[in-house]
């Protein structure tokens, strides 16, 4: 019997802060230093809202206040061993409060405040093309209510 296939569910934040968007510069195992949203994997004991709040705090040191869902994005990548992996990314828009943590998650080098134009000018530094797709949706004013996600339990 073959193993059951499951997508990797990730969350990402488009954080409005001081008139720009907050990003992280991180060390990746595959591509070296890259710019990314504060983002990460959904863990077994949390819903997507809890996950994005946790990830933003861990990666930026700021508490995150989600205000809307930006979108749901599917992406296929090939791992270094050639194995295809599918990701379902749930992107949120929100703001952050004052910094609460100085120590950030290990792969994070620093947080950055960059305009959409500054991000678009650095495509070779971005971790994923999904960042630009989300940025397009962000700029177009695309927003969905947080209660679009229903948690049964």
Automatic annotation (TrEMBL):
The keyword Electron transport does not apply. The keyword Phosphoprotein does not apply. GO terms for molecular function: hydrolase activity. Pfam families: NUDIX. Its cofactor is Mg(2+). Residues 4-136 form the Nudix hydrolase domain. Coiled coil: none annotated. InterPro entries: NUDIX_hydrolase-like_dom_sf, NUDIX_hydrolase_CS, NUDIX_hydrolase_dom. Keywords: Hydrolase. This is NUDIX domain-containing protein.
């Amino acid at each position: 019997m073959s193993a059951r296939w499951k997508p990797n569910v990730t969350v990402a934040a488009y954080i409005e802060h001081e008139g720009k968007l907050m990003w992280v510069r991180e060390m990746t195992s595959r591509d070296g230093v890259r710019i990314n949203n504060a983002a990460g994997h959904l863990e077994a004991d949390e819903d997507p809202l809890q996950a994005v709040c946790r990830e933003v705090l861990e990666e930026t040191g700021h508490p995150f206040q989600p205000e809307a869902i930006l979108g749901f994005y599917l992406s296929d990548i090939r791992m270094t061993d050639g194995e295809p992996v599918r990701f379902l990314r749930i992107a949120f828009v929100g703001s952050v409060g004052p910094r609460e943590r100085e120590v950030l998650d290990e792969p994070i080098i620093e947080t950055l405040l960059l305009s959409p134009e500054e991000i678009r000018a650095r495509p070779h530094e971005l971790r994923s093309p999904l960042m630009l797709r989300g940025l397009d949706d962000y700029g177009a004013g695309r927003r969905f209510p947080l209660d679009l996600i229903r948690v049964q339990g």
